[in-house]
């Protein structure tokens, strides 16, 4: 699958503590952005972090501060098993540092797989966890939640995979060896999938977060059937309706297509700039939020739904999750399943007809039965049933991660997904 040309990175902007400065909102040049809107954006991104903390159920301890080179030697005391590799570590003062001799043990536990990294996807959780200090069990740590590469070797009992296989995975932050911003990544076998035949390393590297989150949100939490004959279902005159707020987000692009395949009519909310993209993915109705008031957007959604709204997801944040609850309130005649995938404040008043489902992607790693979601996603991609979001590849290896995450945070990517290439 083709990828976009390499992005040109702008110079870094850091504050005195070495953290990125919040860039002024330039992302919607056609719209006058008021100070209030900017504040809402900023505060919503802060509260998103709080939810991320809650949903990860992490007791944040004061980070242990050890020299990076000692770390895995302590865990796997025998020096003969230690390999040295490149890793982008988060240092004790929470800045990034590229280390060329970061240790990792060759020795794998039963059921583990070591993958040589060829491409790592960049996600909001990566910058948030560093900036707001969560999901970092100790320091130094290695972050990064999704990657694609080549199986380097497998632990005892692994039968489904072998050295040399081209694979992708989705990881959980609790194991430093599973951080994807390093050359060698160690994960459980059930989280590893062959790269679909029609994808390369770069495109496969975005399946682990956006693709899998959309798949599990719909199939596991919202109980939308995984196996459906969409052609039959689309004939039905009164189809169920699902609201996807944030239709152009990478996660939203997968969600729209999976819902449409299941015979569900999708109402997607996005900016005017991404309307064409969202329409091309099969959304039945696209509501552009640009230049509209919140009540106007809500009215438009409610009138398009015509009493058939049964599912909703929010992929933007606290402000839009609140608006989804208002839509649900206005559709009081139906019970509506709602997954606030980005963030919903625990102070929100949930209307009686809403059933809120908290999406916990750690389940994918902790519960091996969740492997079916990766398998099914792979199959749909191989069948050509799902279009992959456009991928922009950053060259420069792990040293490009920090600048790439700044672009993710700024949010001007208009539906593109950023991947760091480690293919030499
Ligand atoms: N719980 C989990 O495990 C989990 C997993 C994956 C993602 N997430 C969260 O889900 C969210 C989406 O992640 P992502 O990586 O898919 O996002 P992304 O691809 O980075 O999405 C960015 C897009 O959001 C759209 N957007 C911004 N404000 C909007 C608004 N008010 N209404 C509608 N769309 C808006 C923008 O497009 P427009 O030009 O169309 O506005 C922008 O291009 C993030 O908050 C992420 O942290 C959570």
From TrEMBL:
Name the keywords, alphabetized: Oxidoreductase
Keyword Oxidoreductase among UniProt keywords? yes
Entry's InterPro entries? ADH-like_C, ADH-like_N, ER, GroES-like_sf, NAD(P)-bd_dom_sf, Trans-enoyl_RdTase-like
Q: Which SMART domains did the record assign?
A: PKS_ER
A Pfam short name = ADH_zinc_N
Provide the GO MF annotations for this entry: oxidoreductase activity, acting on NAD(P)H
Region: Disordered; residue ranges are 57-77
Which ranges carry the Enoyl reductase (ER) domain? 91-420
Composition-biased stretches (Polar residues): 57-68
Q: What family does this belong to?
A: Belongs to the zinc-containing alcohol dehydrogenase family.
PANTHER family in the cross-refs: HYPOTHETICAL OXIDOREDUCTASE (EUROFUNG), ZINC-TYPE ALCOHOL DEHYDROGENASE-LIKE PROTEIN C2E1P3.01
Q: What is this protein called?
A: Enoyl reductase (ER) domain-containing protein
Organism lineage string: Eukaryota, Fungi, Dikarya, Ascomycota, Pezizomycotina
């Amino acid at each position: 699958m083709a990828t976009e040309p390499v992005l040109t990175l702008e110079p870094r902007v850091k504050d005195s503590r070495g953290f990125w400065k919040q860039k002024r909102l330039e992302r919607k040049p056609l719209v006058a952005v008021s100070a209030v809107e900017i504040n809402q954006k900023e505060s919503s991104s802060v509260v998103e972090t709080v939810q991320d903390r809650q949903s990860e159920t992490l007791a944040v301890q004061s980070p242990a501060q050890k020299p990076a080179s000692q770390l895995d030697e302590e865990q796997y005391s025998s020096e003969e098993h230690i390999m040295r590799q490149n890793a982008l570590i988060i240092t004790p003062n929470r800045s990034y540092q590229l280390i060329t001799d970061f240790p990792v043990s060759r020795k794998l536990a039963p059921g583990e797989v070591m993958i040589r990294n060829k491409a790592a996807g960049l996600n909001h959780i990566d910058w948030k966890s560093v900036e707001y200090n969560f999901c970092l069990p100790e320091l130094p740590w290695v972050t990064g939640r999704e990657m694609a590469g080549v199986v380097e070797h497998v632990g005892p009992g692994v039968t489904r995979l072998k050295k040399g296989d081209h694979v992708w995975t989705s990881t959980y932050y609790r194991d430093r060896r599973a951080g994807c911003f390093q050359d060698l990544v160690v994960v459980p076998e059930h989280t590893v999938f062959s790269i679909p035949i029609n994808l390369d390393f770069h495109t496969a590297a975005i399946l682990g977060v956006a693709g899998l989150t959309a798949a599990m949100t719909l199939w596991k939490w919202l109980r939308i059937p995984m196996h459906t004959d969409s052609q039959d279902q689309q004939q039905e005159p009164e189809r169920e309706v699902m609201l996807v707020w944030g239709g152009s987000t990478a996660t939203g692009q997968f969600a729209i297509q999976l819902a449409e395949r299941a015979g569900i009519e999708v109402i997607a909310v996005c900016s005017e700039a991404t309307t064409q993209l969202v329409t091309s993915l099969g959304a039945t109705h696209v509501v552009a939020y640009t230049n509209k008031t919140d009540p106007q957007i809500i009215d438009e959604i409610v009138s398009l739904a015509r009493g058939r709204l049964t599912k909703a997801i929010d992929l933007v944040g606290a402000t839009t999750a609140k608006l989804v609850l208002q839509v649900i309130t206005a559709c009081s005649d139906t019970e509506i399943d709602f997954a606030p995938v980005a963030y919903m404040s625990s102070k929100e008043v949930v209307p009686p007809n809403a059933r809120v489902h908290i999406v916990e992607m750690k389940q994918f790693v902790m519960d091996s039965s969740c492997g079916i979601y990766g398998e099914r996603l792979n199959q749909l991609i191989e069948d050509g049933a799902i279009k992959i979001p456009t991928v922009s590849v950053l060259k420069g290896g792990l040293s490009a991660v920090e600048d790439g995450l700044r672009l993710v945070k700024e949010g001007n990517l208009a539906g593109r997904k950023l991947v760091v290439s480690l293919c030499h």
